[in-house]
Amino acid sequence: MFIFAGGLASLVSGPVWGRLADRSSRKVMAGAALISGLVGVFVFLAVNLYEPVAAIPVFFPVAYFTLSVAHDGVRIGRKTYIVDLAGGNKRTDYVAVSNSVIGVVLLIVGLAGLLAQALGLSGVVLLLSILGLSGVWMSLRLAEVE
Fold it and tell me: How many angstroms from the chain centroid is the CA of residue 117?
């Protein structure tokens, strides 16, 4: 179900995020980060405060679908922002640096899994959601590019 949800999310959301990113890539990043942060908070609350919702068989696949939609938005928004920001030969440099930085950040954030013993899995989800919500604020502070 998760593979199907992820594939369907990419199929459905890619064109939509692409059109929106052509208007404002920073708003796409902010909106997608908001969606991902809210999904994480919702999952945290459902697991910790109202377990019957989390016990519904499609709960996690639907949450993953929504998170995958948001992930596509952040990815498309980031790439569009960088391409619009740089001109000429600078584009390849910016994209290379951006991809490298994202890789390093993902490795560092991946270490949050080590906190699972102390915080529990839902605590790690909440921590990552808070980081995602901080991405909303950071995205909105970026200059608009065309």
Answer: 24
One-letter identity of residue 111: L
Q: What mean pLDDT is reported for the chain? A: 90
Q: Residue 146 domain-assigned? A: no
The region, left, alpha or beta by phi > 0 then psi within -120 to 50, assigned to residue 144 is beta
Q: What is the DSSP letter of 114?
A: G
Q: Tell me if 112 sits within 8 A of 134, measured CB to CB.
A: no
> What is residue 87's three-state secondary structure?
coil
DSSP classification of residue 65? H
The C-alpha atoms of residue 139 and residue 49 are separated, in whole angstroms, by 31
- Alpha-carbon gap, residue 113 to 74, rounded angstroms: 22
pLDDT band at 74 (very low <50, low <70, confident <90, very high): very high
Q: How many domains does the chain have?
A: 1
112 exposure class (CB count in 10 Å sphere: 0-12, 13-18, 19+): middle
| Residue 145 forms part of a structural domain | no
Domain region containing 65:
2-140
Q: Is the dihedral of CA 125, 126, 130, 131 positive or negative?
A: negative
| Residue 92, in any domain of the structure | yes
